[in-house]
Amino acid sequence: MREPRGLGHHIVWDWNGTLLHDIDAVIAATNASFAEFGFAPITLERYRELYVVPVPKFYERLMGRLPTEDEWNVMDETFHRHYWAAADAAGLAEGARELLRDWQADGLTQSLLSLAPHDKLVPLVRAHGIERHFLRVDGRTGPSHTTKAGHLVRHLAALEAAGVSAARTVLIGDAVDDALAAAHVGARAVLYTGGSHSRSSLESAGVPVVDTLTEAVLAARELAE
Length: 225
What we know:
- This protein has about 220 residues and is α/β, with parallel strands linked by helices.
- About 45% of the residues lie in helices and about 15% in strands.
- It is built from 10 helices and 8 strands.
- Helix 1 runs antiparallel to helix 4 (about 70-85) and helix 7 crosses helix 8 (about 175-185).
- The radius of gyration is 17 Å and the shape is globular.
């Protein structure tokens, strides 16, 4: 039997760009939204160099100004229409299924928090057959131009009855915003390079940065000890 390590510690997983390897769908949907206003397509490298949350700030970096409300509404609707048409074809990141299983087998807990719309997120997580590994799955409710910090506060509050505390939590995500959210609640963070940010951008957050989810879990274990 596997010996539990870091007993009582908890992982909050990000979904898009972390557990779900959907960066190709994201780039295609982003370029579809840009095309609505005649902007040139963006490469993956450029996307990772400039990406930031909240998303209107990302568009500001590309456009040289914040989009107007009408522009934002069109770009946001176009992005989501194209993204969700492609999301079903995206697979889990390498090793994700086994890592979720093994963390749970160690007697440890985990949950999932995403800025993807809740009503879209839950069916997709279920379709991948991994919902049983999580104490809780929460997607975004409310406007899309938001950060994760407030959502993480509510997520952890809902897990208090299960014995989860921020001090014993490590958030694994792919964006600087994940690290900021973790710091906001007093949790730790590990950032993964397989999603939305370049390594140099992630390193600016001052938390461990890794290239695989296996490394992310190992780093989470070390932070928990």
